[in-house]
Amino acid sequence: MHEYIQKPVTINGIKIINRTMVPAMVTRLSGEDGYVNQDVIDRYLGYARGNVGLIIVEAMAIHQSKSGPLLRLSDDKFIQGHKKLTKAIHDCSDSKVFPQLIHFLKVARSGWRQTIDMLSDDDIKNIIRDFGDAAARAREAGYDGIELHSAHAYTLSSFLSRLNRRRDRYDGRSLEGRLRMFGDVMAEVRSKVGDDFPVGVRFLADEMIKDGYTIVDSRLIALRMAQLGVDYISLSVGGKFEDAIIKEGLPPYPYTGYSGERCMPGASFPKLPHVHYAASIKKMINDKGYDIPVISAGKINNPDDAEQLLRDGRADMIGMARQLLVDPNWPKKVALGREHDIVRCVYCNVCKQLDEKFKKVTCFLWPKDYIQAPDYDPEATLPVWENENPLEAEYLDGAVRLKWQRASGDVSGYDLYRAEDGGKAIVIEAKKGGKFNDKSVLGGLKYSYYIRAYSKSGQASAPSNIVDMDLPIEKFTPQ
Ligand SMILES: Cc1cc2nc3c(=O)[nH]c(=O)nc-3n(C[C@H](O)[C@H](O)[C@H](O)COP(=O)(O)O)c2cc1C
After folding, report:
1. Structural domains of the chain in order of their starting residue, each with its CATH number
2. Nearest CA owner, ligand 1 atom 10
3. SS3 267
4. Per residue in 290-337, pLDDT tens?
5. Does the annotation mark 347 as catalytic?
6. Kind and range of the H or E element at 191?
7. Active-site residue, from 154, 232, 253, 376
8. From the CA of 209, how far away is ligand 1's center (Å)?
9. What is the pTM for the complete model shown?
């Protein structure tokens, strides 16, 4: 049924078995030493076992600069660990795996941060060289390709930015000037890995900051990337330092301000808030004769939505970060027609908060103390309702208060489904306990609720009883 999701796609001669990609997501599972360890391998093996077509391994540093726990590819001594990771993935799956290569500038607890206009000509030469060297190491380590991180708050993205204050060859006042650093890096990387090695890029479709660039520029940036020979374009938005909220004693974190919220849109955002960027950029480059895959990410988790956007040609692949974190078996479950077994991300952003605090990135919906997603056991028995009508609701103080009796069996949590005014029921929240206050209702509308209990690996019980609520409009009287 989801035939577009299952269609293979080729990236510079490499076959990707389906249209799913896990975009880079920092795990904080490595130590500050930057080596690959078993926890890191297990995290990525989870995606491979789940049939994710293209696995992008979290941003890894190409240079020596100090930071918290972060993978590195800044020296030959790191190659061995990455070899273990790529071998483990290739041995157990047909997934392809690329590392995301990142260069970042210095930030201090005082709030000070280095900006690209402070870089000398030699600094720039070193950055270009470091990208090339890291790309060569990636190839040696058995990766199937690489991704250049030119998004968010980091060095390459800052050159592309409209806020680039350089006044030299990389002059921020012209689009061509802003694009030159990426061109230099791309040329160096190609000279190190050759033309037959996939080199993708991640960059911003919109900086989401005041005076930053928007789709007007990103369509042209995409075209230049294609002209420069990138093999795919993966889009993100926001995640900038310029609007980061400065917290006393902590280095600035580029996902705290509005642009950060847009980068990892939380529960209050509509689904698929960024797909229109991919559609516009894809049209632009296709019209100019380039057919490299364009990848969209951002609150995509419903298989039908994913299928539709691929069918419509709004993107060539779907990137799912937080959804594949909670349930790396999404592609396998969709292929088996077991969509109900998917553990749905509710975009609570606990993972983002853990990343910010340099803590191991895990998911709130996993069983307590797990540091990896549970394995998928298609044969596991479904949770069952003990009571015929476990769900009850009442309307009080502008909120629908739901409570339910627990299901029995292997129960990991409960998905709450809600239909608004006769529409389609969608998951609005996932809970571990037996109650939830729905504060996002509006008087005058009708709501129907039901819940499903799900097991560790996502098997859902039958729906509970449906509770219909016809909410009165509040009466206002002059005070
Ligand atoms: C914990 C966490 C770490 C992330 N780390 C990276 C990263 O290393 N590189 C990157 O390009 N994006 C990173 N992102 C952004 C995601 O790749 C993705 O673009 C974003 O979460 C929106 O997609 P989603 O709605 O499918 O989660 C990270 C996101 C999260 C939640």
Report:
1. 3-356 (3.20.20.70), 391-470 (2.60.40.10)
2. 24
3. coil
4. 999 999 999 999 999 999 999 999 999 999 999 999 999 999 999 999
5. no
6. helix 175-193
7. 154
8. 18
9. 0.96
